[in-house]
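User: Second chain of the day. Same drill as before.
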Amino acid sequence: MITKPGLFNAYIAVSPSLQWENGEALKRIESFLKNQKEMKVTLFASIGNEPGAIGDSFDAFKAMLAKSSIKDFEWQAERMSDEDHGSVVLRSHYFGLRKVYEDWQAPNDPKSGAITGGLKGVDAHYKKLSEKFGYTIPAPENLINQIGYQYLFDNKPDDAIAAFKMNVERYPMSANVYDSLAEAYERGGRNDLAEPLYDKAQTLGQQNNDPNAAVYKANYERVHAKLKQTEASKKQ
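Assistant: Same format as last time:
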């Protein structure tokens, strides 16, 4: 982090031995932190029950971090008193990754599970993640679908259709996105719009060896039969 800044945007340091060479590493760290104004970096550091120089140097390191005021720099330093220099590794990697990805999940209502802000909220969330990690992170197909059903069950059919259409545009090779949009139309009594979408879903399902291919086929056959029945009744 201090010798090749910008190489990575996240670091996990487990029981760092900063005491060697009369604390030379601590001196370099202190100088580095003082000279940084901004850096999009996440750091997690840990140590077990390790008394002596290694523990003292870790405490000094944590104090330096606490004094820093670097923009966009996120850090956490933990002393795991029930671990030693060897056993601290596993837990540190777990908690380190939790720190790095602590804001990965889209915000949601803890009671209902509903995604906060709907489609706009999701796009804003993943735009922020993309900026933080330095590459484009699209909103996942299943999350957009979840929002669509959220709208559907809240009796907001137009919003649900808009969400499902967005998923079709973003994930055109997924059978499920067509099936979900078709379901929204079917629930609204628009079997004429639902049928070709169910047909597309069953076709893609077969091509992709989708585990739900049989479900997509059954949905198409059901709506196709309804349309034939409607046509027949009009001719009588």
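The mean pLDDT is 94.

User: Great, on to the next one.
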